[in-house]
Amino acid sequence: MFKFDVSNELMCIAKGNGRFYAKKGAMVAFKGNFRFEKLILGPSNGGGIGKALLGYAQRALTGEQMPIMVVEGSGEVYLAQNAYHVDVISIDPGDSISVESENLLAFSEQLEYKVKFIGSGVLSQKGLFITYLENRTNQVQDIAIITDGNPLVLEGPCCVDPDALVAWTGREPYPKVAELSWKTFIGQTSGESYHLEFVESGQIVIIQPSERLSGLGTNSTPNNRIHSGGVRLGID
C-alpha cells in the first residue's frame, strides 16, 4: 500500500509498495524499483474488463477522460505537473469525494473510481459529469490533487464559481443564476452571474485561486489563501 505526502508544496511523494494510479506523465523522479504503464481502459476496481470498458466509455463520452498510468513497485515516487500546488486528501472508510479530473494527480488503487452525473455542471465548461472516488475499504485511502495556486478549503453552505471549483464532499451543488436586469442586455454585468450553491452544512468544498480559461470567463478570484499540506475527510 502507498501513502502520499507533499514535498515543497509542488510535489507528491508516494511511498510504499504495490500499485496506485496517477496522471500519465506525472512522474518526475523515483527511488526503488517501479514499472509505469499507461492504463488504456481505466481502473476496474475488481470489476473485470467489463467494468473497465464501461468506465472508459463513460469518460470518453463525458469529457472526464483523465489519461491514467499504473505505477507498480516499491520505494518512493515523486509526482508533479507544471509546478502546480499539490495537496494530499485522506479519505476515511465509507467517505467519498467528487473532483474535477484535470485536478486529480494520483489516487489509491483501493478507491472505487467512476464518472458521476451531477446535472449542475452545465454552468461550467466541464459539463454535467465529475470524477467520483469512494472508499469502500476499512482503511484510510489517499488521493493527491493539483491546483493552480494555493487552494482554499471552504465549509458549506457556500456558493462558488464553477470554473474555480476543484473538489467537494457530500451532495452535489445546485446551479444558481443571477436575476436578469437591464444591465445584462448592455454587457454591464459583474461577470459573476453563475454560481454553484452547496447547501449541506459542514460539507468540504475546495476551490483554487484561478479560473479555467475554457469556462465562462467570469472574473472572481478568492481573496483568502491557505497552505494545506493535507486534508482529512471524515466525520469525527
TrEMBL record:
InterPro entries referenced in this protein's UniProt entry, alphabetically: AIM24 (IPR002838), AIM24_sf (IPR036983), Trp_RNA-bd_attenuator-like_dom (IPR016031)
Name used for this protein in its record: Uncharacterized conserved protein, AIM24 family
Species of provenance: Asaccharospora irregularis DSM 2635
